[in-house]
Amino acid sequence: MLDNIREWISDNLRYILLRLAVILLIIIAFFAIRLVTHIGSGGSKKVNTEQETEIQTESSASTSDTVEALVKDQEDVLSLATTYWAAVQDLDFDTLETVCGTTFDDDARAAVEAMDVAVESYDDIMTYSKNGLTDGSYVVYVYMEMKLSGIDTEAPTLRQMYMQPDSDGTLLVLPTESYTSAISEYILERQTDSDVQALIADVNNTLSERCAADEDLAKYIESINSGSSSSDSDSDDDSSDGSDDSGSSDSEGSLGTMQTTTGVNVRSEASAESTKLGSLVAGSQVEVLENLDDGWSRITYIDVSGNTVEGYVMTQYLTN
Question: Please, are residues 172 and 101 in contact by the beta-carbon 8 Å criterion?
Fold first, then answer.
């Protein structure tokens, strides 16, 4: 019996080994497929998790970098702005010292007295504010209708202010001479925010419409933009006429008014590495003082606070 079995195995050994080999390959293939499938699934989940983390990180960064929108007529901000400009109008230095938390010396008083000498009143005050650098502080844009002496049409204007609380928590107006470099830089950054740019453009458009309807207002605004007063505009015209041969229109060597073709940064020097003084939206009017050979132009313009700013922009972004 055993001999017969051995003989049968001997005769069929080759076929038996072949079948065992096939079965073994099938088993190996089965586990290989399971292993590959498991690894692929785990790897996919890992990649998805990493992508999700990146998206969450980017979303968090985007949220933290987003500056809140302008807030209109916040109660404490509006109250302080109204009090401040009423005191400026009345030359009420006691009130100004209170709302600014500082003493006004002779130079400070003279500066207030020289502010908007043609203005009879500031009417219809509204405020648009954003949070400042510290808790409870604000960058504020004050909209006012200015009643100018001898001009029927009121002129809309926008003035920038910075407010911050004192040690007792009382909100005060911070005088510009007390701005730190960090505050100044933050204010300049906020001027580039899209909603602030839209607010500035809206006020400028309203002013342009009123100038088109009132020649006296147009002449006054033109005299302000050119750095002269309305009382000596005739002498400025004579100077302009007599300067055609020299190629300049005033004592600053003005080459005339131009517009920006796009949003552009204003620098302290003719270099992209120099300090950023501010920025202008497309269509902003500037006075060109000098065109440099290195592709920059020295300009001057009136900023949102009503101050005259002199700086440099790239000439390629200016047009007539």
Answer: yes
In a 13 Å sphere around the CA of 162, the CA atoms on its Cβ side amount to: 21
Partners of 300 in the beta sheet?
A: 287, 310
DSSP 166: -
49: left (phi over 0), alpha (psi -120 to 50) or beta: alpha
Q: Are strands 119-131 and 276-280 parallel, antiparallel or unpaired?
A: unpaired
* Cβ(270)–Cβ(292) below 8 Å: yes
Beta-bridge partner residues of 297: 291, 313
Cα separation, 162 vs 84, in Å, equals 12
DSSP strand pairing (256-260 vs 119-131):
unpaired
Is residue 93 within 8 Å of residue 218, measured between CB atoms? no
User: Helix 181-191 and helix 194-213: axis angle, to 10°?
Assistant: 70
Q: 76-114, pLDDT tens digit by residue?
A: 999 999 999 999 999 999 999 999 999 988 888 887 887
Measured distance CA(159)–CA(78) in Å, rounded: 13
Q: Report yes or no: 156 and 145 within 8 Å, Cβ to Cβ.
A: yes
Q: CB neighbours (10 Å) of residue 252?
A: 15
Between CA 239 and CA 246 the distance in angstroms is: 11
Q: Taking phi first (over 0 means left), then psi (-120 to 50 degrees means alpha), and beta for anything else, what does residue 66 get?
A: beta
Tokens standing for 225?
């933009």
pLDDT in tens, 236-266: 333 333 333 333 334 345 678 888 877 778 8
d(CA 269, CA 275): 7
3-class SS letters over 186-223: HHHHHHCCHHHHHHHHHHHHHHHHHHHHCHHHHHHHHH
- pTM beyond 0.85: the answer is no
What is d(CA 25, CA 27) in angstroms, rounded to the nearest whole number?
A: 5
